[in-house]
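Structure in, sequence out. Go:
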């Protein structure tokens, strides 16, 4: 299958790898499968979160930006979507060095798109949350416009609380 000519918008082409994470509650190491998609597929992934996820379900998009930072050498921001209080929203988690360094600029970008940002802390983790407007398109804009990711770039994703369907291998 030619990965550039998907006829069905509900199909998501993926690659992947094993990713070692620290459990949020137990703090023990857990192995998760890190899917790999392309930026244009973010909309379909967020729609599956919306349709199949439940309270506290989430997906994190991880990517390497070609835009350097003067504050950190970290070139891998993370963009999370989650369901909180029954609403799908974007979470800009303020743990990784790049997310922290880009907080002000990302906030300005989000506001310029007409979205409202709320600062939240949950389980000792601070983050910015956006729930109004088309949050799926906003996330795609953050990746493609703000971070200037090429359309054929690989974006890693981790997910919890739902599974993806309509997957096709990138190999």
């Amino acid at each position: 299958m030619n990965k550039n000519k998907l006829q069905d918008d509900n199909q998501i082409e993926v690659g992947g790898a094993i990713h070692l994470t620290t459990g949020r509650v137990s703090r023990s190491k857990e192995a998760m499968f890190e899917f790999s998609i392309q930026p244009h597929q973010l909309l379909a992934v967020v729609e599956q979160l919306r349709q199949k996820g439940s309270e506290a379900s989430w997906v994190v998009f991880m990517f390497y930006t070609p835009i350097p930072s003067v504050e950190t050498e970290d070139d891998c921001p993370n963009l999370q979507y989650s369901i909180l209080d029954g609403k799908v929203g974007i979470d800009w988690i303020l743990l990784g060095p790049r997310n922290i360094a880009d907080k002000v600029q990302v906030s300005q970008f989000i506001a310029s798109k007409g979205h409202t940002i709320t600062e939240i802390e949950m389980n000792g983790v601070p983050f910015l949350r956006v729930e109004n407007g088309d949050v799926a398109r906003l996330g795609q804009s953050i990746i493609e416009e703000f971070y200037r990711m090429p359309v054929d770039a690989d974006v890693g994703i981790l997910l919890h609380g739902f599974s993806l369907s309509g997957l096709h291998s990138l190999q």
